[in-house]
Specification:
Blueprint: H1 2-14, E1 20-27, E2 30-36, E3 44-45, H2 56-64, E4 73-76, H3 79-90, E5 99-104, H4 121-129, H5 139-142, E6 154-157, E7 162-165, H6 168-176, H7 189-212, H8 218-222, H9 231-235, H10 255-265, H11 274-285, H12 294-297, H13 305-319
Parallel strand pairs: 1-4, 4-5, 5-6
Antiparallel strand pairs: 1-2, 1-3, 6-7
The structure holds iron/sulfur cluster (3 copies).
Length: 347
């Protein structure tokens, strides 16, 4: 299917349907997203590569936010990156006007750690197409429930080896570049197998967290190893604030304030506000968490941050009957006031 991606890029540039394209590529410095301004400069692309050094939604934001160049860009991203982009769009951090979002049935990515063979893309794709989950996939990928290009304009279906338009914009684009395409995903036995395996893993994950977090002290224990490096916040595509509340004056401690706190509490754990930081992050963005796994990948203390957010996110999202990054038009729950919502908490 890589050839199909090359064909899309070639035709799109030739027919002036795009001015730029972002695609995962292999360069001297390894696998990275690269922004190309013409087809001739496109080197070795590897769109399905099992590597995620940053969530691609951040790339779209970088390229399109305040884009007054009038340029059109095509992005080839993993489904969780597209979904994060849709959430960022709702937070006014992305402009979709001049974009075409292409995604694919996603085999998942490996942890970005030494010892994982990132070159073994053929085995990863073979496993995937045969309905098996590769062993060294990240836990969040093994339990990923939205891996079929949800939210994108165009899907590259690795199972049925087809290009599929998912939106009117995608359809128009594919017609304009004269590419054969379908308009719906065909049923496929192995795709269903992957869907079932991942749904079972997700259900096991939710059950295990539900059991563990019955005890309210579990949260403190869970983040006990946290060194408050803020990597999880930096890597998260949804945590976009220029200044995090936890970096504000409110959370800066000076000798005086430490002394005051110490007098009240008589014992003060340092660094301060560690659990509060994680609770703050959950309360700010759990409705939009797309379980992309980035926060866990970058945690130096191997805390299952992403799995925790996936569990918390699911509970909160279900409360609002909201699935992040699927429907571009559906407003964010935290920005929507419904008069009759949560009446039960008033009693
Ligand atoms: S979380 Fe899902 S969409 Fe994201 S890389 Fe893993 S399998 Fe793909
Ligand atoms: S909290 Fe973690 S899993 Fe959720 S969107 Fe942010 S980085 Fe991804
Ligand atoms: S990345 Fe890990 S150690 Fe760093 S702040 Fe987040 S949870 Fe704590």
């Amino acid at each position: 299917m890589k050839e199909k991606v090359v064909e899309i890029l070639k035709k799109a540039f030739e027919k002036s349907e795009i001015d730029g394209a972002v695609v995962m590529s292999k360069r001297e410095d390894g696998y990275n997203y690269v922004l190309y301004s013409n087809f001739e400069d496109i080197g070795e692309i590897s769109p399905f590569h099992p590597v995620m050094k940053l969530n691609g939604a951040k790339v779209i934001s970088l390229v399109t936010k305040d884009n007054d160049l009038g340029k059109k860009f095509l992005f080839i991203l993993k489904p969780c990156e597209v979904r994060a982009a849709i959430e960022l769009k709702k937070l006014n951090q992305i402009d979709f006007n001049n974009t075409i979002l292409v995604s694919f049935t996603c085999p998942g990515v490996f942890e970005f750690k030494e010892g994982n063979n990132f070159e073994d893309i053929d085995k990863l794709l073979d496993d995937f197409k045969n309905g098996n989950l590769s062993e060294n996939l990240r836990e969040t990928c093994k339990s990923c429930e939205y891996f079929k290009g949800e939210g994108s304009d165009i899907l590259i279906d690795i199972f049925n080896e087809e290009v599929i338009s998912l939106t009117a914009k995608g359809e128009e684009f594919l017609k304009n570049i004269d590419l054969n395409f379908s308009t719906e995903i065909k049923d496929n036995e192995n795709l269903n197998k992957i869907k079932d395996l991942r749904a079972k893993n997700a259900s096991d994950l939710y059950k295990s967290f539900k059991k563990d977090f019955k005890d309210e002290n579990k949260l403190i224990e869970f983040f006990d190893k946290c060194i408050k490096c803020n990597n999880c916040r930096e890597a998260c595509p949804i945590c976009y604030c220029r200044q995090c509340y936890f970096e504000s004056e409110t959370f800066k401690y000076y000798p005086d304030s430490i002394k005051r706190k110490f007098q009240i509490k008589s014992a003060l754990r340092l660094p301060t506000d560690k659990t509060l930081f994680h609770l703050g992050r959950v309360s700010h963005m759990a409705t939009s968490c797309v379980a992309c796994g980035m926060c866990e990948d970058v945690c130096p203390m191997d805390i299952k941050v992403s799995q925790f957010f996936k569990y918390m996110g699911k509970n909160i999202q279900e409360t609002f009957n909201y699935v992040p990054g699927i429907n571009r038009e559906e407003p964010l729950p935290l920005l929507t006031f419904k008069e009759d919502e949560f009446r039960e908490v008033e009693d």
